[in-house]
Amino acid sequence: MLRSAGWSGRRLSPPTHRFACSVTGGIMSREEKSKGDVGRREFLKLFGAAGAAGAAASTLPLGASASADEVIAATADTKHHHVAEATEPQAGGIGYEFFNIDESAFIEAAVDTLIPSDSTGPGAKELGVAIYIDRQMAGGYGKGDRLYLEGPFGEGTPEQGYQLPMTPSELIRAGIADISAYVQKNHKSTFDGLSAKDRAAVMTELDGKKVELSTVPTATFFGLLLQLTIEGYLADPMYGGNKDRAAWKMIGFPGADAMYMDKIEPFRNKLYTAEPKGIQDLV
């Protein structure tokens, strides 16, 4: 018997691979483009706002300086200093807390490949998504604080949730090592040393399960990497990514400010635009 999904809060949901392909354009095939796929801005307007709203209101672990319980307490308006402590890494610099030099170079190149900068909007790398992933791996989420890690372990269905004995940070670290070894063997290079075209080709192989990683399931690793990249791109800036709320501005998402009672009458049947607000702007 397989374990049921062991999450009490955030969970490893099945990846939506077409999201990344629609976002990047570079990974999306010409055949898919010819079928009239919407562009990145339109796709994010459809799905990004909902994801951004969830990320803005969620209680994701913020890193080593704050636990999930502390974040919940902060959002309940008890002690706001927990939120301030949790955001210190972003305010204090770009230093990585979890990834080493080689791993951080891989993550930066990976997120830049999944969501590159183009004429539509900024890429994941420039919005600090690598820092978001680093903070998640260094914090309670990456350590599996709220994750059931007891056996039995086996290959389950997507509905049964995460089925590995590894914490998310262990999975990410092992997957990076596996892909680095694969790239070194087949391309005689590091992943970040590849051209943009070759990096996209490697990601396409991972997405299509054409590469069998040596220590972790390819689909599980790629799914988590993609999920974290999307989260960091659309989440509230206090978590490390979405620098200057640029992703929110691109899709027209107003941010964490959910009070619009005073806007209903003045803007009835009129376009309402506002500068996006993050959680830190409201405390």
Describe this structure in words.
46% of the residues lie in helices and 0% in strands. It has 283 residues and is mostly helical.
Total strands: the figure is 0
**Mean of residue pLDDT values:** 76
Number of helices: 12
Strand proportion: under 5%
Global structural class: mainly alpha
The percent range for helix content is 40-55%
Radius of gyration over C-alpha positions, nearest whole angstrom: 19 Å
One letter per element, helices H and strands E, the order comes to HHHHHHHHHHHH
CA-based shape:
globular
Note the gap between the termini: 47 Å
Q: Main sheet, how many strands, which sense, barrel?
A: none
Question: Unreliable runs, pLDDT <50, ≥5 residues?
Answer: 4-38, 56-93
Topology:
Elements: H1 17-24, H2 30-34, H3 40-57, H4 68-75, H5 81-86, H6 88-92, H7 101-114, H8 129-138, H9 168-187, H10 196-207, H11 218-234, H12 246-251
Helix pairs in contact: 1-3, 7-8, 7-10, 8-11, 9-11
Task: Summarize the model shown.
The protein is mostly helical and 283 residues long. Helices cover 46% and strands 0% of the residues. α8 crosses α11 and α9 crosses α11.
